[in-house]
Amino acid sequence: xxxxxxxxxxxxxxxxxxxxxxxxxxxxxxxxxxxxxxxxxxxxxxxxxxxxxxxxxxxxxxxxxxxxxxxxxxxxxxxxxxxxxxxxxxxxxxxxxxxxxxxxxxxxxxxxxxxxxxxxxxxxxxxxxxxxxxxxxxxxxxxxxxxxxxxxxxxxxxxxxxxxxxxxxxxxxxxxxxxxxxxxxxxxxxxxxxxxxxxxxxxxxxxxxxxxxxxxxxxxxxxxxxxxxxxxxxxxxxxxxxxxxxxxxxxxxxxxxxxxxxxxx
Length: 265
Ligand SMILES: Nc1ncnc2c1ncn2[C@@H]1O[C@H](COP(=O)(O)OP(=O)(O)OP(=O)(O)O)[C@@H](O)[C@H]1O
Ligand SMILES: [Mg+2]
Hints:
Layout: H1 3-10, E1 36-45, E2 48-58, E3 63-67, H2 74-82, E4 89-94, E5 97-98, E6 106-109, H3 121-125, H4 133-143, H5 159-171, E7 177-181, H6 189-206, E8 209-213, H7 217-223, E9 226-231, E10 234-240, H8 252-264
Parallel strand pairs: 3-8, 3-9, 6-7, 7-8
Antiparallel strand pairs: 1-2, 1-4, 4-5, 9-10
Helix pairs in contact: 4-5
Bound molecules: adenosine-5'-triphosphate and magnesium ion.
């Protein structure tokens, strides 16, 4: 990718098997998250209709995973929430305000880390600069477990470490929503499992609203509070997972839900 392009990038159902356990006390302040409201949105690229009637309401602090077949509009949805695409009709609002372009409190994380190779790790994290950028960038690096790699070049990091740097860059200004487009898709299974743990911890500490696009239904059911299936331009399934995180590996409800999701995509 060209330097200029890279720089531009910077800018319910059956009865419940388990009752939800009390969540751990939130560490983040209650204003750390924003709600996202999409009502009767339509979107087409030329003749190709991506969304015909899309409505989705995400509560502040909620973690929603979105799954669906390739080409069903997952990335388009994320870009619409981020203000990078506009809906043709309908309403899109964040925190009650209509979406009109990028916001500082809504950040994106992609499958590729998109680091600038000519900047050291700390500069990549603090790319937006501003007052105290170095202190804030270092704190974000510590949060993702890379406090000792600030002065390295991106090229010497592993794929998983690079994605941690990208996460730190997204976190540096304490976003109120983190929009993730298959962020772990390029990672091996062990690194992916580590990133899952990291994301769950970070999300609890920061308190942001999380939207995770993934093609991996198991990943969605491991991480999220709620799973949404997109199909034929609309929401085909919308389920709260309602299983405590620590029971996700063993819950019979998870297997049942996985079956239902796979039947809907
Ligand atoms: N800028 C664009 N111009 C024209 N068509 C587009 C554009 N962006 C997306 N599309 C089309 O919109 C549809 C949805 O694309 P999108 O990238 O949102 O799918 P996706 O669900 O993210 O797919 P994948 O799982 O493969 O990433 C596709 O048919 C795609 O070709
Ligand atoms: Mg996509």
